[in-house]
Amino acid sequence: MQGLVSIVVPVYNSEKTIDRCIKSILNQTYSAVEIILIDDGSTDSSRKICQKYIDSKDIHYYYQENKGVSAARNYGIQLCHGEMIGFIDSDDYVKPTYIEELYDETVDLSLCSCADTLEDGKVIKKSETPMEGVYDKINLDFIEVYKTGLLGVCWGKLFKKSLLQELEFNENLMVCEDTLLVNQYYAKAQKIKFVKNINYLYTVGNANSLNNSKYSIKLLDMHRMANEEALKCLKEDGTFTKKDLNFKRDLFLMYYADYFYYYLFQSTDKWKMRKKILSELYQKVYFKELEAQIHKILATESKKYRKILLLKKPSVELFICQIIKQCQKRKDKK
User: Fold this and answer.
1) Example GO molecular function term (predicted)?
2) pLDDT tens readout for residues 249-287
3) Which of 5, 302, 331, 332 lies 20 to 30 Å from 67, alpha-carbon distance?
4) 255 touches 289 (CB < 8 A)
5) Which SS3 state, helix, strand or coil, does residue 169 take?
């Protein structure tokens, strides 16, 4: 007998994609599935599209005032009856064997390879699992798994309900809320299943778009908070090495360094505004961490960040350049 799997789908103004999403779940080769649709205050025709499916006993629709995707997911978790829970975004869709290949009642977490696609279905990026099959977490290389990017998102996975209910998505975070939860959950999990097949299709908008909202100081602080909370859980688990924890910390520093790069080279703001933001970035308490580790970032992203060495602009930019030059000199002497 198949164990029941609950799929939570947060919905917000998804009239163009929600029908495809629901149909892809209904088309699963695994039959014991309930779909929990959480409408987070949509103002388009998403509600109407969802309601045409609720005659089915396996599809449940709930509406809430707009509170954000984390609140929608948390609400959905409370309503699930399945022993395993998964999340699928309303813009995305899954292949027919998605749940069948992920499901394994003996594991705490299962995850599959995923692909980023444009709205026309064109694949622009693949995130593939580094192995296939079931493993004890203690025998896994955390860094190898983390580099895939699959531990940064909540979709493309099945979670054990009994463990997931001990956690919740942080509703105060606008970014990294799923990264934090998945990291917290990974710290609790003992047995992990990997599926090599690309069964989850994540739909992105304009893959080449860059905007200031993506690089706001507020989002940077949220990213930092989520990273620190995740590190705390991983450290408390006791199975992660110092190298693992340093790797996770360095990922944030690379993200932080990318802010400098953006405001130096890519922002369309006037120099006066960019200089102000760069000054704010410099004054962050974690700048000293960046200064200490910048040689690692330069080595990892050498082509990208070496451009900074050529700058001759004054003030903040020059200051940053001097730091990177000094770190590069230290690196070259080793």
Assistant:
1) glycosyltransferase activity
2) 988 988 888 888 788 778 899 988 888 888 888 888 888
3) 5
4) no
5) coil
For the stretch 291-328, pLDDT in tens is 777 666 666 655 655 555 454 444 444 555 554 444 44
Q: CATH number of the domain at 5-203, please?
A: 3.90.550.10
The most distant pair of C-alpha atoms in the chain lies apart, rounded to whole Å, by 70
Calculate the CA dihedral of residues 215, 220, 226, 229 and round it to 10 degrees.
Answer: 160
Beta bridge mates, 193: 110, 134
* Distance separating the N- and C-terminal Cα atoms of the chain: 61
Exposure string of 191-230, with b = 16+ CB inside 10 Å and e = fewer, is bbbbbeebbbbbbeeeeeeeeeeebeeebbebbbbbbebb
* 238/249 Cα distance (integer angstroms): 16
Q: 298 vs 156, 293, 329, CA distance in Å?
A: 32, 9, 12
Q: Is 191 left (phi over 0), alpha (psi -120 to 50) or beta?
A: beta
Domains of the chain by residue range: 5-203, 241-333
pTM (2 d.p.): 0.87
Residues found in the chain: 334
